[in-house]
Design brief:
The structure holds two protein chains of two kinds.
Chain A: H1 4-20, E1 26-27, E2 32-33, H2 37-41, H3 50-68, H4 73-92, H5 106-109, H6 111-134, H7 139-164
Antiparallel strand pairs in A: 1-2
Helix pairs in contact in A: 3-4, 4-6, 6-7
Chain B: H1 2-10, H2 12-31, H3 33-85, E1 93-101, E2 110-113, E3 126-129, E4 132-140, E5 145-149, E6 156-161, E7 168-172, E8 179-186, E9 196-199, E10 211-220, E11 226-233, E12 242-247, H4 249-259
Antiparallel strand pairs in B: 1-2, 1-12, 2-5, 3-4, 3-12, 4-5, 6-7, 6-9, 7-8, 8-11, 9-10, 10-11
Helix pairs in contact in B: 2-3
């Protein structure tokens, strides 16, 4: 199946949930924010052209800005994430390399590698967003917000992967010698 | 054209990235007042810094030219000083006189004094009114002197702005007995309203450093590297009642030279 189709589906529900529900997920005095729509962006498959990553990420950010009235901040942050996405994939690929259409997930790439992958991407996103919001004068607050929100979202993304993206059991019924297995 | 298209194709991702960032910043600019203020501040700072740099480069170029002029001026001044230090340099003598007629509000450029040739005054002597340069005696009778003031439209006077300024020309403004114009002041010389204008002593009428007036206004055309100053004359001709006449042997010699008949071949 074309890996873009499940991505679109994930992007759709993640964006809807982010707009309707998780936009109110503000913790620790505004230092920890949830951005579930990024979970979908981190499922963009390997092998696309770099421009495609940029366009999809920028489009998602623009939709978030329009719906949440955030005036270009998500667009800037997601554009930067989309620009950095190919480099992130290359930095995180295992020794065996990545096949075309592969979607980064902890079950195949390892929990640590996946956590590092999303942490770097989230850090880029939050750094840009909080940096634009706070300006140079509040750089310390920007760094703290980036660290806290990145940690929070990494935890949430790992939880989502564990809950909803578990690999299915290998069905080998037709080839089994035991009909009950 | 093909090369341009190839360049665009090769850099389209970065161009798209920059374009999207531009859209984002523009969007923020229209949405958030804080960001709008910050962007305006950055923009002003950047443009100010750029203009300052351009100005410094321009100042440097002008300073180079001004330095050359100053070197020439210094050479001339050194020559003048050496000449004045020579034995036998004539000292200046002063005498007082009362003003019988002074430049009126109607713009007459002449002044008449109550002392003349039999009182020791001679054509070519400088006249000082209220501590400021006022003019030059051009003719005398036995007991009257006729003074060509700074407001006479046919005369030029050698002056400088401040004690270190370059020598420039002071010209009358027609019909104006209170102000005169100082021409050809280099833009490289910093002049401010209120600066004092002094004589240079080069024209032989006055010694150097006699006050002439104060700068009232500056005009810069932009077409050349010079500025024109409007100077309020300190002599205050309509109110002048007493003057001091400065004379030296050099005054009389210069006057005689200027009025000598051209030699016949």
């Amino acid at each position: 199946m074309n890996p873009g189709i499940p991505l679109l589906w994930t992007l759709a529900w993640a964006t809807v949930f982010q707009v309707l529900l998780f936009r109110f997920g503000i913790f620790w005095g505004g230092y920890g924010l949830l951005a579930v729509h990024l979970y979908a962006l981190f499922r963009m498959p390997v092998g696309w052209s770099p421009t495609a990553y940029l366009v999809v990420a920028a489009g998602t950010g623009a939709v978030m800005d329009v719906v949440c009235f955030t005036g270009g901040m998500h667009l800037a942050a997601c554009t930067t994430l989309g620009m950095a996405y190919p480099s992130l994939i290359v930095a995180m690929e295992s020794r065996d390399g990545l096949r075309q259409g592969h979607v980064m997930n902890p079950h195949q790439d390892g929990w640590g590698r996946y956590a590092a992958f999303v942490a770097f991407g989230l850090a880029i996103h939050w750094m840009v967003l909080f940096g634009l919001q706070n300006g140079w004068g509040l750089m310390g607050r920007t760094l703290a917000e980036t660290a806290v929100s990145t940690g929070l979202n990494v935890g949430v993304f790992l939880l989502l992967q564990g809950l909803f993206n578990r690999p299915g059991r290998a069905s080998g019924g037709a080839a089994s010698a035991y009909p009950w297995s | 054209m093909r090369n341009l298209l190839a360049l665009l194709a090769r850099t389209h991702r970065w161009l798209l990235f920059l374009g999207l960032w531009g859209v984002a910043l523009g969007w923020m600019n229209t949405t958030y007042s804080h960001q709008r203020t910050a962007m305006s501040k950055w923009s002003l700072r950047a443009s100010g810094s750029w203009l300052e740099t351009i100005g410094q480069v321009s100042d440097w170029a002008q300073l180079v030219e001004a330095n050359e002029l100053v070197m020439l001026e210094n050479a001339r001044l050194r020559a003048t000083v050496e000449r004045l230090r020579e034995p036998g340099a004539t000292p200046w003598t002063s005498s007082h006189a009362r003003v019988l007629r002074s430049p009126s509000w109607q713009g007459s450029p002449w002044m008449v004094l109550n002392r003349g040739g039999q009182d020791g005054l001679a054509p070519g002597a400088g006249v000082i009114s209220l501590g400021h340069a006022a003019g030059k005696i051009v003719d005398t009778t036995a007991h009257e002197s006729f003074v060509h003031t700074l407001t006479h439209p046919d005369a030029q006077w050698s002056v400088r702005v401040g004690r270190q300024g370059q020598a420039v020309r002071l010209l009358a403004r027609k019909g104006d007995v209170r102000r005169a114009a100082v021409m050809d002041v280099p833009l490289a010389q910093l002049v401010l309203p209120g600066d004092t204008v002094f004589t240079t002593g080069h024209d032989g009428v006055f010694p150097a450093d006699i006050p002439v007036g104060t700068v009232e206004d500056l005009a810069r055309s932009g077409a050349d590297e010079f500025q024109t100053l409007t100077v309020t004359l300190g002599a205050n001709f309509p109110a002048s009642r007493h003057v001091v006449c400065l004379a030296s042997a050099r005054n009389a010699r210069i006057h005689d030279l200027l009025n000598a008949q051209a030699p016949q071949p």
